[in-house]
Design a protein that fits this description.
The protein is of the alpha/beta class and about 475 residues long. Helix content is about 30%, strand content about 25%. It has helices spanning about 40-50, 90-100, 140-155, 170-175, 180-190, 190-205, 215-220, 240-245, 295, 305-315, 370-380, 385-395, 400-405, 425-435, 455-484, and strands spanning about 5, 35, 55-60, 70-75, 80, 105-110, 115-120, 120-125, 230-235, 250-255, 260-265, 270-275, 280-285, 285-290, 320-325, 335, 345-350, 360-370, 405-410, 445. It is globular, with a radius of gyration of 23 Å. It starts with a strand and ends with a helix. It comes from Paraburkholderia susongensis.
């Protein structure tokens, strides 16, 4: 294999751009070369903060475009997201990034988002951000209504104690939070009816998880910041806009799949060799690995015990979505399904055509239930999910086949990291390991991404900034050692 050493940072721009509130003072970086693997929001945030601090940064991205699970796709006349659709307002690090990039005007507020929850007993309204109206949910016994009020107050009071960017921050309030499943937690806190009519449909429709799969960490760190709020955001220019803006200020190489990362001593100096799938190689002083956690393990040649054990734990759920382009106008509609209704679709959305916003056709968004995802896997029909949904859609919409003019099957093998019970405790220990100053001289790879923080784009962004801080701390420790 021939080794190509690419010139580092060939296209990098002035690292002093923006900066208000950036955690890394420009003087802290000592000109070291950092390779960031993965150009999702986590990797790009890390790269941006490191470059601001004076480091030379190269970002390597396997795909042909940046953004990862925060991007936009188009197939013919159908537009859709590669992942995230909403920006929750509570991400402090993400909000600071938006301010630094002067992108505040690109945030489009969406107020009072709600869905009709379809159950065998009739429909009811579900709000994404719980309010007093949640008390009107039909079928809730009086005891659960009272428990819901008390729960809402308790959640609101915990706002200052939990950080929505860090799922493990719930452990500071309740060390048991990581051991309880979300289902057990809600049953104990409020009751089984609230679980079935409120929490479970939302988690299945927005997260594609059943409540017994997850620990209570995500719920207990985000809900305190949602109670009493009414606004989420989307982005003018598409969900990938922030990532594209970041990439425009960095040296990012797309189509550059990393095959391995290896520590080497060259003339007595420790360097990290990053080898690409095409045989190219970069030498770096530090490496930030911002790829999906379940892929990271295969890249690291000689992992230390802590990283090998952590990476072996990372799992994702999968997701299937079918997007239809429809020739007939349909009214806007958002439906979630309760678990006891016979449907393979957990989220059903009708979006009227909006040519001025780049959506020329009426679109239907059909997201599979967790059970239907398993069925697709079993049948091996990830490219043809549509066939599983047709009968149900024909029953919903008259003359369905006649009006469908385009279909896109979207299979996402890694949708969200699974914070199963016990995962949070491991994760907390892993960050201690990453941040231990004793690691400065060994310079193991620093990991970030939603699997290290919170299964949201805001969490991924926060983890990128934290990874940058670790690299800067290590560089500073090394510089001090060299000086003394
Ligand atoms: C369908 C869906 C809906 C979602 N909805 C929301 C939402 O509404 N709101 C919200 O906040 N969050 C949502 N999320 C979660 C959010 O999208 C993610 O948490 C976030 O985007 C993850 O960012 P990341 O940088 O950690 O990872 P990624 O975006 O996955 O970035 C990892 C990058 O690494 C690259 N990579 C992988 N292997 C290699 C390699 N060997 N070499 C080089 N590059 C490599 C990948 O191509 C990718 O670009 C959703 C996710 C999905 C999938």
């Amino acid at each position: 294999m021939t080794e190509k050493f690419y010139p580092a940072n060939a296209r990098a721009r002035d690292p002093s751009v923006a900066g208000g509130g950036a955690p890394a003072a420009k003087t802290r970086g000592n000109g070291s070369h950092v390779v960031v693997i993965g150009a999702g929001i986590a990797g790009l945030t890390a790269a941006y903060r490191l470059q601001q601090a004076g480091m030379r940064v190269t970002v390597l991205e396997a795909a042909g475009m940046v953004g990862g699970r925060m991007g936009d796709r188009r197939s013919g006349e159908i537009v859709f997201n590669s992942g995230a659709r909403l920006i929750y307002p509570f991400g402090r690090v993400f909000n600071r990034l938006i301010a630094d990039l002067a992108l505040g005007d690109a945030l489009i507020p969406l107020r009072n988002l709600s869905a009709r929850c379809v159950t065998p007993r009739g429909d009811h309204l579900i709000e994404l951000m719980p309010t007093a109206r949640s008390l009107m949910t039909p079928g809730l016994p009086m005891g659960e209504r009272l428990a819901l009020i008390a729960h809402g107050v308790r959640m609101r009071l915990q706002r200052g104690r939990v950080d929505p960017d860090w799922a493990v921050s719930a452990l500071d309030v309740d060390p048991e939070a990581d051991r309880l499943t979300l289902a057990d937690y809600i049953r104990g806190e409020i009751g089984p009816h609230a679980l079935a009519s409120l929490v479970d449909p939302v988690f299945r429709a927005t997260r594609s998880f059943n409540a017994e799969t997850l620990s209570s960490l995500f719920y207990r760190t985000t809900v305190p910041h949602l109670v009493g709020e009414d606004t989420v955001h989307t982005l003018r220019g598409g969900m990938g806009f922030v990532c594209q803006t970041l990439a425009g200020q960095l040296d990012v190489r797309t189509g550059a799949r990393v095959a391995s990362v290896e520590h080497r001593r060259e003339a007595g100096v420790l360097r990290v060799a990053v080898t690409l799938a095409d045989g190219g190689m970069l030498a770096a002083d530090h490496v930030v690995c911002a790829v999906e956690g379940s892929l990271a393990g295969a890249l690291i040649r000689t992992p230390q015990t802590a990283e090998r054990e952590m990476l072996a734990q990372v799992r994702y759920n999968a997701l299937g979505v079918v997007h239809y382009g429809f020739a007939q106008p349909l009214p806007a509609l958002m439906q979630f399904a309760s678990r006891d209704i016979a449907s393979r679709i957990s989220t059903f959305q009708q979006m009227p055509a909006a040519p001025a916003s780049g959506r020329p056709l009426t679109q239907l968004y059909c997201q599979l239930t967790p059970e239907a995802v398993e069925e697709v896997r079993r049948r091996g029909c990830t490219d043809d999910i549509d066939t599983l949904l047709r009968d149900e859609l024909r029953a919903r919409i008259p003359d369905f086949d006649r009006h469908v003019v385009a279909v896109v099957n979207q299979w996402i093998p890694r949708k969200l990291p699974v914070f199963a019970p016990g995962y949070g405790e491991r994760l907390r220990a892993f960050w201690h390991w990453q941040e231990d100053p004793a690691r400065a001289s060994e310079r193991p790879v620093v990991y970030c991404g939603d699997w290290t923080s919170q299964a949201l784009l805001t969490g991924a962004c926060a983890s990128g900034e934290r990874a940058a801080r670790i690299v800067l701390d290590r560089a500073q420790i090394q510089a001090k050692r060299t000086d003394s």
